[in-house]
Amino acid sequence: MIRQTARQLLASILVNAIYEMKNYPVVLLNTILAPLSFLTLIWFVSKGTLLIPAIIGGLIMTMFSSGTSLQGDLSHLKNDFKLQDMVVSSPTSASTYVLGIAISELIFSLPPILILSTLFYFFVQVSVLQLVGIIVILIFVFLTSVSLGFALATISSDIVQSFGYTRLLTTLFSTLAPVYYPITYIPLPYRYLAYLSPTTYAAQIAQNLSGTLTSSTVELIIDWAVLISLTAVFLWIGISKSRWREK
Question: Which one of 123, 129, 135, 225 has the fewest CB atoms closer than 10 angstroms to its CB?
Fold first, then answer.
C-alpha cells in the first residue's frame, strides 16, 4: 500500500513538475521573477527599509501562488487530458492525487523558494523558535491555497476559466494584501479591507516574528486564531465541497 502510494505521488511529480520544468522553462522563469519583481520594487521604493518584510512577503506569495497554481494544472489535466476521469476509476484516492500535485507544485517553486530562503538567511535575523513560527505560517498559507485551488479546479470547465480564478486569487491575496510591507502603511479606513485576506494575518504574524512590526499580545492571538480558523475552513471547503466524481 505504501509503495503504491509512493508510486502514485512520484507519477504526479513527474507529470506536473519535472515534465513542465524540462520542456517549458519559460514558465519556470515566470515563477522565479514574480516574487522577486515585487521584492525589488518594494526595495527600491522604500530605499531598502522594507527589505526584510519584502523577503518574507516573497516567501508568502510564493507559497500561496504554488497552491493556487494547482488549480490551473488540475483543470488542465482534468479537462484537456481527462486524467481525473482515469484517476477516479483507479484505486487512487482524491487525497493521494491532490497530495501528489501539491508536492509537484512545491518542487516547481523550489528555485524562487531557495533564492528567497538564501536572502532570508543573510538579511533576516531570527531565533530558531521564530523561524519555526514563520515556517508554520508558510505551511498554513500553502494549505489554504491548495484547498482553494482544488475546490475551484473541480468545478472549472475550462483552462481559461481556471487562469481567471488563479489571477484573481493572486491579486487579492498576494498583491493587494499587505504582504510585502506592514499593514500600517495602509491608511484608515482602507486598512480594514486588507483583513479580508488570510495572507494579511499570516504576514502580520511573520513580520512580528521578524521584528519589523510590533503588535500587542491580544492582536497576535487574534491573528493566529483567524489564520488557523481560515485554514481549517478552506480545508473543509476543499475536502467537502469539491466535486471529485461527476454526478
Answer: 129
